[in-house]
Design brief:
Length: 494
């Protein structure tokens, strides 16, 4: 195409920006907590060139990595740069898009066949002093955490055999090990999944492969203290459809979901599959944990179908976003129960409202957790939500949930305003729940937007921000982010 399509994925807040900038000495309004010193990294999809096809969407955008750094002198710095993936370099050399439909290489220009086509645009991952930009359709790219220079595709020193790595890793707070997986591990529409454990030193300790019940979009997973949990939802890929130039993903409402459970240091033949309901889908999990009776609880933002219109509509599912049903939902299983896949099933309990982007303190990963946070839509909003993001509307309500049964807290935004996913910053004060950092976007005129970073008391989100930083540059919505304390950045530099 000669110009960007005038669809929701390329207009308004979603309009491509594609500018690399560096801003220093930004003023902080309010009182910045002393613990909030470090860098907030964000993965921002932003296409450098108009796409080949008019029905392209946000998640195909080239990866950009942004860094908002809170300095010791009370100011903040902001920078954003493209991740120089092989795909981005190939298109930059030609001055145009050369890769076709989302995750379908059969629609690419012939001269880029075999070029790594991941855009590394989903999650910045920090572990063992390395910053990786990840997207689940390929291996991650390593980025310098200070300069944001791209250091190249990363395969753990040649140890990783899987062709893919999830953008949703889990880090154990005690062992500091990183757990991840790659689906379609040996190619398009494959059922092969690679389950990997990385030591606290960043070395890949183990990689085991297993077959999923079918090739599914496995966007996120969880660990508990003793198990790894692999959810399988019926958004599926088909190789013949891809070869015919079709879409990578279709959603199948009549196909059952599954939850795979294995000892997290076990062998893949030990995986047990628990049957879930038909047609459901979740992009993000809040946590998993074991109770005193040995039952395993898996908490996810579950919907009645896939949340993305660009997946639903090619599947023949034509509904409005507000027609979807959803809730923060707990699946409970007994990992030691007798029986096989046809007799074992999840027990489902609604534990929270619909929404997404769940957050917990990192120290509670895989353990019982007293509280968590998530984004949702304000049912009492008197005015339109802010159009933007991959589903077309930004979340406008931040919730703090008491997982012990207490009342929730809420922070609502005015019309035409939206939250990006927050990150949690731990507190140095015992008993304090820490802080949340998030980017808030507000439309203030025709194609005019105000972008601010808000710092919130995690225990009292309803009180609003304790500090704000206005970023005087046009921003595009992020996918995910990661907080890195300054002490860890200093140690990595040393």
């Amino acid at each position: 195409m000669d110009a960007f399509p005038q669809t929701m994925y390329f207009t308004g807040l979603n309009a491509p920006v594609g500018e690399e900038v560096s801003l220093t000495g930004l003023a902080v309004e309010g009182t910045l907590p002393p613990e909030v010193r470090g860098s907030f990294y964000r993965a921002v999809p932003d296409p450098a060139f108009p796409p080949k096809f008019a029905n392209d969407h946000t998640l195909s955008g080239d990866g950009m990595v942004s860094r908002l750094s809170f300095n010791g002198d009370g100011t903040a710095d902001y920078a954003i740069r493209f991740v120089e993936t092989a795909r981005h370099l190939a298109e930059k050399a030609a001055g145009r898009a050369r890769f076709g439909k989302y995750r379908n290489p059969y629609t690419d220009d012939a001269d880029v066949a075999g070029v790594d086509r991941t855009v590394a645009n989903t999650t910045p991952v920090w572990h063992a002093g390395r910053l990786l930009m990840a997207k689940e359709d390929g291996r991650p790219y390593r980025v310098d955490p200070v300069t944001l220079d791209t250091l190249g595709s990363y395969d753990f020193g040649g140890a990783l055999k899987s062709e893919t790595m999830t953008a949703h890793v889990r880090i154990d707070p005690v062992t500091k090990e990183l757990f991840f997986y790659g689906y379609e591990a040996d190619g398009l529409a494959s059922t092969k999944v690679a389950y990997c454990v990385v030591g606290p030193d960043g070395a890949l300790k183990s990689e085991q492969w297993f077959d999923a019940p079918y090739c599914a979009m496995m966007h996120d997973f969880t660990i508990s203290e003793n198990y790894a949990l692999f959810p399988i939802y019926p958004t599926t890929a088909d190789l013949e459809r891809l070869k015919a130039g079709g879409e990578h993903w279709h959603h199948e409402p009549e196909t059952v979901s599954w939850l795979g459970v294995m000892p997290r240091y076990g062998d893949v033949p030990e995986i047990r599959w628990f049957k879930g309901p038909k047609g459901v889908h979740s992009y993000h999990m809040m946590n998993a944990w074991e109770d005193a009776d040995g039952l395993l609880h898996f908490d996810a933002c579950l919907n009645s179908t896939n949340a993305f219109a660009f997946i639903r509509e090619p599947s023949g599912i034509h509904i409005q976003p507000w027609e979807m049903q959803g809730a923060l939902t707990r699946w409970t299983v007994d990992p030691k129960a007798d029986g096989g896949p046809e007799t074992l099933a999840v027990k489902e309990t609604v534990i929270g409202p619909p929404g997404d982007f769940p957050v917990i303190p990192a120290v509670r990963q895989g353990r019982p957790y007293p509280h968590g946070w998530m984004l949702t839509m304000n049912p009492e909003l008197q005015g339109p939500p802010l159009p933007g993001g991959p589903v077309g509307a930004m979340f406008n309500l931040l919730l703090r949930l008491d997982m012990r049964g207490g009342p929730p807290q809420a922070l609502a935004l005015p019309p035409l305003s939206g939250f990006n996913e927050p990150v949690h910053v731990p507190s140095a004060t015992e008993g304090h729940e820490g802080w949340l950092v998030t980017i808030v976007d507000q439309q203030i005129g025709d194609d005019r937007f105000l972008h601010q970073a808000w710092v919130l008391d995690a225990a009292n989100v309803a009180a609003g921000p304790v500090a704000k930083v206005t970023i005087p540059h046009r921003l595009r919505p992020q996918v995910h982010g990661w907080w890195v304390p300054q002490a860890e950045l200093d140690a990595a530099s040393a």
